[in-house]
Write a structure and sequence with these properties.
The protein is 26% helix and 30% strand. Helix 3 runs parallel beside helix 4. The chain is of the alpha/beta class and 362 residues long. The strands form four sheets. It has a seven-stranded mixed β-sheet with strand order 3-2-1-4-5-7-6, with helices on both faces. It has a seven-stranded mixed β-sheet with strand order 12-11-10-13-16-18-17, with helices on both faces. A two-stranded antiparallel sheet has the order 8-9. The protein has two domains: 20-164, 3-Layer(aba) Sandwich (Rossmann fold), CATH 3.40.50.150; 178-355, Rossmann fold. Helix 6 links the parallel strand 10 and strand 11. It binds S-adenosylmethionine.
Length: 362
Amino acid sequence: MPSLHRYPPTTDRSLRVSSQADELLLDWARQSLLTDVPTTVVHDRFGAVALRLSAPVQFIASYHSQEEALRRNAGGYLPANVARLTDASPVTHQALLRVPKSLELFEYYLAYLGVNAVPGARLAAGFMTRHFTPRLLEISARYAGTVTQSRARKKARLLLLSDLYLPAPESGPRPMLRNVIDYQGARYTQYYGVFSSQHVDFATQFLLDSWPDDLPAPASILDIGCGSGIIGDQLLRRYPAARLTATDDFSLAVASARENLPADRATVRYAHTLATVADASQELVVTNPPFHQGYENTLDTSLSLFGEVQRVLTPAGQFFVVANRHLNYATHLRRLFREVTVVRENAKYVVYRCGRSPVLTE
Ligand SMILES: C[S@@+](CC[C@H](N)C(=O)[O-])C[C@H]1O[C@@H](n2cnc3c(N)ncnc32)[C@H](O)[C@@H]1O
């Protein structure tokens, strides 16, 4: 069995690389799957299912960091049969899926697999019983001939779907499950599973409502964790001469942002770090940073991105962060930036403005 590690690494020792839901999926796979056709594996964050199957695997990657985790856990190379969720759906005979926290993303996965499912295709979806909701059954029933549940074992359970298919009107080369959000006279579309699906996130609105009028117009803007691109788009409207770079780890966020942002002024990168952003290239950096990864809460991702911001800001550049107050990012930001001020705060949210000058260590 390969030695598996989380990527990005975490200092939180309660976070695991695999769960009992993975073990249940693997046991079911050993007993029930055909070994002469590939098994499609979906939402397997670190490869804990895919890399322990003995049969051929078609891996579906949703996240850029997931691709890196798989590469590292596979011994340094990305297996050839990796497709992205934004690629055409592969032919699916049988599939193993870790149920994501977002029910919309769960539905997107079923639709994505249903596009090219062979007649009689089967799927097992693994979850921890505390995360069960009857909505899982309702959604599954729309994409499968029959849906049953396994018995629970060690607080995990499987949903077993037979005869996967894609119902009309979602047919086509890839499912187009999207939400539409109207905000400040603009219309944004976002694929299922992208952050804040029914309305513009309240922290995001707080940031945009608090935007200072005295900021010199930047020529370059970087929006980290852009989601469907709302912050970047609103700033491009405010600063007509600016160009935007936007990044997100989630492939469906990137696809949404590409549809929402003006192609002649914005570049959207599928990335989980700022490695492709040049040193001292950004006059304005902005983020509503991630602190959830599915069911897990962690500051690790945000803090690592904040560290990279120091490098990409111009000497006079400004960095804006909006966050839930209770996360107390100020402590962390003050370790990285000499000037950290609160632009606005209320009972729930706070907007920080940071100047680049790094804090010098002795
Ligand atoms: C709080 S949401 C904000 C989304 C969007 N900016 C908004 O305001 O609606 C955080 C976003 O960060 C993305 N994300 C998570 N980890 C990331 C990383 N390492 N690099 C870039 N984006 C990341 C998530 O996919 C999510 O879209």
